[in-house]
Automatic annotation (TrEMBL):
One of its GO terms (molecular function) is monooxygenase activity. Residues 6-343 form the FAD-binding domain. Gene3D superfamilies: 3.30.70.2450, 3.40.30.120, FAD/NAD(P)-binding domain. The keyword Cell wall biogenesis/degradation does not apply. This is FAD-dependent monooxygenase. Keywords: FAD, Flavoprotein, Monooxygenase, Oxidoreductase. The keyword Oxidoreductase applies. Pfam families: FAD_binding_3. It comes from the Bacteria. Its cofactor is FAD.
Length: 539
């Protein structure tokens, strides 16, 4: 056996979630090693829907343009509930720069993320099969087999991104609580001559369900379930003839399916580990939670797990935060995962209604979808932009009770906004977060020197205690601001987005986390009190 290989973080698994975690760590200068069992990236399409909030995470990582170039921006869905006339759900309601479902095969997602990792100087160590994992007060240890050689690794922390059959989870005897749902779905990537649809096309009736997802190249993902094939012995292999037969069964007017590139049956389950953190080990993606595919949530949930965890590990490893700060990963992400499991299980039960109950579902669904507010709520909810953390106990403690109701408080997602930067050009907020990680905005007034003085005093003290942590910007309503120093760049809030949409006012300090959520919003204009909130954040 070779000598022990040491690093700060071990990432086990190089699917989308593991690659997202590796990119986050590399971007923030954390030393890591990513181990993957597979010899090469998967060529299977698997998960294909990228939600708006995930696209925002990709932008904060700096990789969104590659996804936009290769993906298909699905504008919505046409739902055929028990009949021929479709109810249309449009996604332009999503309050994001990405008001659509980006449809892209998972294989392409993996390629983009691994290519981006390589551009940053990171790599994936493939053909490493994990044999054993254990941990103690000094670190976490992994043994892995690679081409007949046993390698041993040691790290301060480990990210388990090794999927639904996680070896890390098994090695540590972590429960995967839940149950199988007992349904068999069909799936095929095929050509569908005669179907020229820019919307997702979904059919639901007493015979089953089938959905067509358009790819950018003109082919379709066909997925659904056939009631006539439920309860049969499980098998993974699906033939084109079986897929065609099931689609013919469900649809009143069917389509011819041709040129399959992937065909499969799959079952569903809902399971979740009780704690996403086990001492030095963190579970992300399918290693932490699995559920059925309704709503297109699974891969997005994992990618957002990784985004939440990566900057927190970097904050601890760089000495800004205490180890206990990492408990916030469980506090923030476990409830989101739990809600998704409940919702997808509920969706499956509703979809599976038949007879009179199915007719009531169809009637109620059609009636509800005629309401614009219902469509808006559905679109924004499924897009994940409402996945916020303001109800988490540790974030509640950071709230400022003097702020108006419209003001964003700790844990809230910060939407992207247009700014007038440095008195010279329009700029958006998200590129600043991408470039600097922690972004601190301090609202000033050119006619009140006290706010400017406060900003410079706070900046000096932050730099003394947390050197290199954040980039501080002054935010002014307009006009020309003159300061004694030139080290704090000025943003002019000429569009009033910071004031009207974020609730900032003179003396406001809004600290934005690297994942685009509010760390805290403080209006005390007392630098010691504001610093105390920063200390509290990292405990």
């Amino acid at each position: 056996m070779s000598s022990v290989i040491e690093t700060d973080v071990l990432v086990i698994g190089a699917g989308p979630t593991g690659l997202m975690a590796a990119n986050e760590l590399k971007k923030r200068g954390v030393d890591f090693i990513c181990l993957e069992k597979r010899e090469a990236p998967s060529d299977l399409s698997k998960a294909l829907g990228i939600q708006a909030r995930t696209m925002e995470m990709f932008e904060l990582l700096g990789v969104h343009k590659e996804f936009l170039e290769k993906g298909y921006p699905g504008p919505g869905a046409k739902l055929h509930l028990g009949g021929e006339n479709a109810s249309v759900v449009e996604l332009h309601h999503i309050e994001s720069r990405y008001p659509y479902l980006l449809i892209l095969p998972q294989s392409e997602t993996e390629k983009i993320l691994e290519s981006h990792l390589a551009s940053l100087g990171g790599t994936v160590d493939r053909e490493h099969d994990v044999m054993d994992v254990h941990q103690d007060e000094t670190g976490v240890y992994v043994k892995a087999s690679c081409n007949g050689e046993v390698k041993e690794y040691k790290a301060d922390y480990l990210i388990a991104a090794d999927g639904a059959h996680s070896k890390v989870r098994d090695a540590l005897n972590i429960d995967f609580e839940g149950k199988d749902e007992g349904y068999t779905f069909f799936l095929g990537d095929v050509d569908v001559p005669g179907l020229e649809e820019i919307f997702i096309h979904m059919h639901l009736n007493d015979r089953g369900a089938v959905a067509f997802f358009p790819y950018k190249d003109g082919s379709y993902r066909v997925v659904g379930f056939d009631r006539a094939r439920q309860g049969l012995p499980h098998k993974d292999e699906l033939t084109l003839e079986e897929l065609q037969d099931s689609v013919n069964t469900v649809l009143k007017y069917s389509y011819r399916l041709e040129n399959p590139t992937w065909l499969s049956y799959f079952g569903t389950a809902h399971r979740q580990v009780p704690d996403y953190r086990k001492n030095r080990v963190f579970f992300v993606g399918d290693a932490a939670h699995i559920h059925n595919p309704f709503g297109g949530q699974g891969m997005n949930l994992g990618l957002q797990d990784a985004s939440n965890l990566g900057w927190k590990l970097a904050s601890v490893l760089k000495g800004y935060a205490a180890d206990s700060f990492l408990d916030s990963y469980q506090d923030e992400r476990f409830p989101i995962g739990k809600d998704v499991l409940k919702e997808t299980s509920r969706m499956l039960k509703v979809v599976n209604l038949e007879g009179t109950q199915g007719k009531v579902r169809n009637w109620a669904g059609k009636a509800a979808l005629t309401q614009d507010w219902v469509q808006q709520r559905i679109a924004n909810h499924l897009s994940n932009i409402y996945n916020e953390y303001e109800k988490v106990k540790r974030n509640k403690k950071l709230k400022d009770s003097t702020l108006p109701r419209k003001a964003l408080q700790a844990g809230r997602r910060v939407p992207d906004h247009l700014l007038f930067f440095d008195g010279a050009k329009d700029e958006r907020l998200y590129p600043f977060i991408c470039d600097y990680g922690f972004v601190c905005l301090i609202y000033i007034d050119a006619q009140h020197q006290d706010a400017i003085d406060y900003a410079y005093t706070f900046a000096e003290k932050v730099n003394d205690q947390y050197q290199g942590l954040m980039k501080i910007f002054l935010v002014a309503k307009g006009g020309t601001v003159h300061t004694d120093g030139d080290d704090l760049p000025i943003i002019y809030d000429v569009h009033r987005h910071m004031e009207r949409k974020l609730g900032m006012e003179k003396g406001s300090v809004l600290l934005i986390r690297p994942d685009g959520h509010v760390a805290f919003h403080d209006t005390s204009m007392d630098e010691e009190r504001t610093l105390e909130k920063l200390h509290q954040l990292f405990q």
